[in-house]
Design goal:
The complex is a heterodimer.
Chain A (H helix, E strand, L loop, with lengths): L8 H18 L3 E6 L2 E7 L8 E5 L2 E7 L1 H21 L7 H17 L8 E7 L8 E5 L6 E3 L2 E4 L3 H11 L6 H12 L15 E7 L8 E4 L1 H8 L7 H6 L25
Antiparallel strand pairs in A: 1-2, 1-8, 2-9, 3-4, 4-5, 5-6, 6-7, 9-10
Chain B lengths: L1 H6 L5 H4 L6 H8 L21 E2 L2 E6 L2 E6 L3 E3 L2 E4 L5 E5 L2 E8 H22 L5 H14 L1 H5 L4 E9 L4 E7 L5 E4 L2 E4 L3 H11 L6 H18 L15 E6 L2 E4 L2 H17 L10
Helix pairs in contact in B: 7-8, 8-9
Classes of the chains: A alpha+beta, B alpha+beta.
């Protein structure tokens, strides 16, 4: 019989954190920025089917980096949590703060339970408010802590460099187009100070737009609209309204209409 | 194990179980008591008095479908509510109108809306129109116990099929039996009279506005002969709910639009109380 090695608790937790951090750093970068009309999510993601950015509820969006099966599991858990809460109480009672808390508890429990592999994920939960001051952005690292972020936040591979780049250049009240271009520049920087050019088809972009008439504020920015916004020198957000929002029914009862699943069907 | 994880404040196991995109499936494992079909039935003798919603009509036109409902809820001889709304958007491309026990019907619609939205968020794509119609069938079947005690809910489901590019109508019976209707359909206590009117007024080549007018005419005829159906209430400015579902999605007609249609119908009825005449030959 062999004697088990003694591992100090500090060492055990440090090892687990190291393991999770390494897994997360292998992924591609993802940034979330506040702009004048809401919050924009930009991820480097060549896949059209496996999303890193998704809708959770009317005003709440979710972005994640790391291991797909783990964050997908958390995303669906979040959708279930939000839908159940909204059904039990009211749609207004579903908040990003509540959701972030649940995620933090879940990640924290998994991280500190010795029997489970720590999740290699880092999440962002964002809620768009009626005014920019009411926007909330929470970053949730692998260990169950919550960081309340303002302005800009980056997670995933190379996150430190990207976020310091963003911090220096991000301003309040940017247009969508300006925020998007800044995000793409930031994502294109690699660890050695080099730069890559990211094109529209390597990006996954979505917004929580407070000016949308519908109850559900989440919208993916796709195709032509995205390339238009990325072009330098285009006037502010010319592309925002014509391609996306025109599709939406704006009758008083049409609040439920048009979420992420509805939009790809409409090609204008 | 489940209780243990709940104590720690993390998401309980059913939240993180992969596999199902259905909110109802999730609810039936996590919180079955919140689902209508899972509640024990109280033993009662005879019928229970509860507000009932009445007439809903659906009329297809070349670019989509119109769904309209009157505004009355009755409880026995009494008018329980004058301005109840019985036509709801189910998602961007479909709507549901309900007849039967109002309280249960509204709950069913909320769950149905959530079921479609939940699927859409989890899968990143919408259900097919047939899929939505089948889902509703299952939900009605869940209410069968209540229906046997006189608390039936009978919806009418209409939507724009984005694959076939046309409006489609589905009607149901209390046991959840589903049948597709072509052209027009009506449910509720005034449906016999509404259907009679629609038979004479519906044509395949109507525009959206004409179809909305035909729907209001049919509701007028239902109100004319069925005491439980409410006609346009000019004094209180309560008009039917009229929704159009087309390629552009769900749109509820503004109150002023419906008021104009209702006034036109009423003015014509001052001349011909039985409504417009269909050509005989």
């Amino acid at each position: 019989m062999t004697t088990p090695f003694y591992v100090s608790p500090q060492q055990a937790m440090a090892d687990r954190a190291e393991y999770a951090r390494k897994g997360i750093a292998r992924g591609r970068g993802l940034v979330v920025l506040q702009y004048a009309d809401g919050i924009v999510f930009v991820a480097e993601n060549p896949s059209r089917a496996l999303h890193k950015v998704s809708e959770i509820y009317d005003r709440i969006g979710f972005a994640a980096t790391g291991k797909y099966n783990e964050y997908e599991n958390l995303r669906i858990g979040g959708v279930r949590y939000a839908d159940l809460r909204g059904y039990t109480y009211d749609r207004d009672d579903v908040t990003a703060r509540g959701l972030a808390n649940v995620y933090a508890q879940t990640l924290g429990t998994i991280f500190s339970s010795a029997g489970e592999k720590p999740y290699e994920v880092e999440l962002i939960v964002a809620e768009v408010g009626d005014a920019p001051e009411d926007d909330q952005v929470y970053r949730l690292p692998h260990d169950g802590s919550i960081i309340d972020e303002h302005g800009s936040v980056a997670v995933g591979g190379n996150a430190d460099q990207i976020s310091s780049y963003l911090e220096q250049r991000h301003e309040d009240g940017m247009t969508l187009s300006a925020a998007l271009r800044l995000a793409v520049q930031a994502l294109g920087r690699d660890g050695n100070g080099g730069e890559r050019e990211l094109t529209a088809d390597q990006l996954e972009v979505a917004v929580l737009d407070r000016t949308r008439p519908q109850r559900r504020k989440f919208k993916r920015v796709l195709g032509r609209q995205l390339s238009q916004l990325l072009e330098p020198g285009t006037s502010a957000d010319a592309g925002t309204d014509d391609a996306g929002d025109a599709e939406a029914p704006d009758g008083s009862g049409g609040g439920d209409a048009s979420g992420e699943g509805g939009s790809p069907k409409k090609k204008k | 194990m489940a209780a243990n994880s709940r104590d720690q404040g993390r998401l309980p196991a059913p939240f993180l179980t992969p596999g199902s995109s259905s909110f109802l499936d999730f609810m039936s494992t996590h919180a079955p008591e919140q689902l209508p079909g899972h509640r024990p039935l109280p033993p009662v003798q005879g019928a229970i008095e509860a507000p009932h919603g009445t007439t809903i009509v659906a009329v297809a036109f070349p670019g989509g479908v119109v769904l309209a409902g009157d505004r009355r809820a009755t409880m026995g001889n009494m008018i329980a509510q004058r301005d109840i709304e019985k036509v709801f958007p189910a998602d961007e491309y479909s709507a549901v109108g309900i007849a039967g026990t109002a309280g249960l019907a509204v709950e069913m619609v909320r769950l149905f809306q959530l079921e479609l939205e939940h699927f859409e968020k989890v899968e990143g794509d919408t259900l097919s129109l047939e899929g939505k119609a089948n889902r509703l069938s299952t939900m009605i079947r869940g209410n069968l116990g209540m229906a046997m005690q006189g608390l039936a809910v009978v919806p009418l489901f209409a939507g724009y099929d984005t694959d076939r590019e046309k409006g489609r109508i589905f009607s149901y019976d209390v046991t959840g039996g589903r049948s597709e209707e072509f052209g027009f359909a009506a449910v509720g206590s005034g449906s016999i009279f509404a259907r009679g009117a629609l038979k004479k007024l519906h044509r395949g080549d109507l525009t959206e506005e004409q179809t909305a007018t035909v729907a209001v005419q049919a509701l007028y005829d239902a109100a004319d002969d069925d005491s439980a159906t409410g006609g346009p209430d000019v004094t209180r400015r309560i008009y039917p709910v009229v929704a159009v579902i087309s390629e552009d999605g769900y749109r509820r007609l503004a109150e002023s639009e419906v008021a104009d249609i209702a006034r036109t119908v009423l003015d014509a009825r001052l001349q011909l109380p039985n409504g417009p005449l269909a050509p005989v030959v």
